[in-house]
């Protein structure tokens, strides 16, 4: 038995180039998970990218996602940019990578070799408390602030090597990424009808509150009958919207079988009462990053704005609702009166 396909509202956005060059001088950005650190950068950033094989990039990214306590909570795209900034350092036998009691400014990932972590005084002057053998990482907190090494880490191979990331480089990478992400998301929001009437200050706040979500290929983003929870904007990758037949077969929705960078979907979540359900399913066709705006964040930032419009200019509110529910964009440059 064939399923009946129901139309959904899907908008199409202008495809923006996320690798646009920065202006000659860009504003500083305040960054750091624990504390505000003001960082300034210019058109010469991003800095030099240290060449790595795809296998090496995947190995470093895996460490950041699984073995770290701070970095694993960052956006996937940011981590991919940070991976590019690691450089390889060859370490000879008995070289002290960090020394107990001294300041450390780098984060280290073991690429190859055996390293001993020692502290205090043992029978030979030092007591080994941990081993790193071809894996592991240490001194992650040095990316946030200058750290005094609690232990000494020394190489025990003649051909050991480490992946190294300096704190200042990390800060610059984060500042650059956040600035570009903010510029991109604000421009994308200007193309979403429900957000295009919102003034810039509110857009800036919404941009900061947007959640980055990463999906592997063939991962289901949401299913039919799931609660309408918010709006999704495709940053990288591609997404397919579809219905599932009674026989369990997927039927792509015409015009929404491959949403790419700049497309958005799920905006009807903002026009219905809480608890309403999705009328379609969504799946990532390839590794995909989405910007997600929840209903709660939307109403906290825009709710009073819509209320003010409703009180003062009802015709504009009706126009806003019709914009949201139409499965197309307004003609480029059209102004909502």
Automatic annotation (TrEMBL):
<dbReference type="GO" id="GO:0016301">
    <property type="term" value="F:kinase activity"/>
</dbReference>
<dbReference type="Pfam" id="PF00027">
    <property type="entry name" value="cNMP_binding"/>
</dbReference>
<dbReference type="InterPro" id="IPR014710">
    <property type="entry name" value="RmlC-like_jellyroll"/>
</dbReference>
<dbReference type="GO" id="GO:0005829">
    <property type="term" value="C:cytosol"/>
</dbReference>
<dbReference type="InterPro" id="IPR000595">
    <property type="entry name" value="cNMP-bd_dom"/>
</dbReference>
<dbReference type="GO" id="GO:0030552">
    <property type="term" value="F:cAMP binding"/>
</dbReference>
<feature type="domain" description="Cyclic nucleotide-binding">
    <location>
        <begin position="70"/>
        <end position="191"/>
    </location>
</feature>
<dbReference type="GO" id="GO:0034236">
    <property type="term" value="F:protein kinase A catalytic subunit binding"/>
</dbReference>
<keyword id="KW-0116">cAMP-binding</keyword>
<comment type="similarity">
    <text>Belongs to the cAMP-dependent kinase regulatory chain family.</text>
</comment>
<keyword id="KW-0418">Kinase</keyword>
<keyword id="KW-0963">Cytoplasm</keyword>
<keyword id="KW-0808">Transferase</keyword>
<keyword id="KW-0677">Repeat</keyword>
<comment type="function">
    <text>Regulatory subunit of the cAMP-dependent protein kinases involved in cAMP signaling in cells. Type II regulatory chains mediate membrane association by binding to anchoring proteins, including the MAP2 kinase.</text>
</comment>
<keyword id="KW-0472">Membrane</keyword>
<protein>
    <recommendedName>
        <fullName>cAMP-dependent protein kinase type II-alpha regulatory subunit</fullName>
    </recommendedName>
</protein>
<keyword id="KW-0547">Nucleotide-binding</keyword>
<keyword id="KW-1003">Cell membrane</keyword>
<dbReference type="GO" id="GO:0005952">
    <property type="term" value="C:cAMP-dependent protein kinase complex"/>
</dbReference>
<keyword id="KW-0597">Phosphoprotein</keyword>
<dbReference type="GO" id="GO:0005886">
    <property type="term" value="C:plasma membrane"/>
</dbReference>
<dbReference type="InterPro" id="IPR050503">
    <property type="entry name" value="cAMP-dep_PK_reg_su-like"/>
</dbReference>
<feature type="domain" description="Cyclic nucleotide-binding">
    <location>
        <begin position="194"/>
        <end position="319"/>
    </location>
</feature>
<keyword id="KW-0114">cAMP</keyword>
<dbReference type="GO" id="GO:0004862">
    <property type="term" value="F:cAMP-dependent protein kinase inhibitor activity"/>
</dbReference>
<dbReference type="InterPro" id="IPR018490">
    <property type="entry name" value="cNMP-bd_dom_sf"/>
</dbReference>
């Amino acid at each position: 038995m064939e399923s009946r396909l129901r139309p959904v509202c899907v908008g199409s956005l202008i495809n923006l180039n996320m690798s646009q060059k920065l202006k000659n001088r860009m504003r500083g950005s305040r960054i750091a998970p624990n504390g505000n650190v003001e960082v300034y950068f210019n058109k010469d950033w991003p800095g030099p990218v240290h060449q790595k094989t795809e296998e090496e990039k995947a190995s470093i990214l895996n460490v950041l996602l699984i073995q770290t306590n701070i970095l694993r909570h960052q956006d996937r795209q940011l981590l991919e940019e940070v991976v590019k900034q690691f450089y390889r350092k060859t370490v000879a036998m008995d070289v002290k990578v960090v020394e107990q009691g001294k300041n450390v400014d780098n984060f280290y990932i073991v690429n190859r070799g055996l390293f001993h972590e020692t502290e205090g005084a043992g029978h030979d002057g030092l007591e080994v408390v941990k081993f790193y053998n071809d894996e592991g990482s240490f001194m992650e907190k040095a990316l946030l602030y200058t750290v005094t090494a609690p232990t000494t880490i020394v190489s025990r191979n003649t051909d050991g090597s480490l992946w190294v990331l300096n704190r200042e480089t990390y800060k610059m990478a984060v500042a650059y990424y956040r600035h570009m992400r903010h510029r991109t998301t604000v421009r994308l929001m200007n193309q979403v009808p429900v957000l295009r009437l919102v003034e810039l200050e509110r857009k800036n706040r919404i941009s900061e509150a947007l959640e980055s979500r990463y999906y592997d290929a063939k991962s289901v983003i949401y299913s039919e009958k799931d609660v309408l929870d918010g709006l999704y904007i495709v940053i990288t990758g591609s997404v397919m919207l579809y219905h599932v037949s009674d026989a369990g077969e997927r039927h792509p929705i015409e015009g929404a079988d491959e949403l790419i960078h700049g497309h958005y979907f799920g905006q009807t979540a903002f026009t219905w009462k809480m608890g309403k359900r999705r009328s379609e399913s969504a799946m990532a066709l390839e590794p995909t990053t989405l910007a997600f705006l929840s209903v709660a964040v939307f109403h906290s930032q825009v709710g009073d704005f819509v209320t003010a419009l409703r009180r003062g200019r009802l015709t504009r509110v009706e126009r806003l609702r019709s914009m949201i529910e139409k499965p197309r964009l307004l003609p480029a440059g059209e102004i909502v009166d």
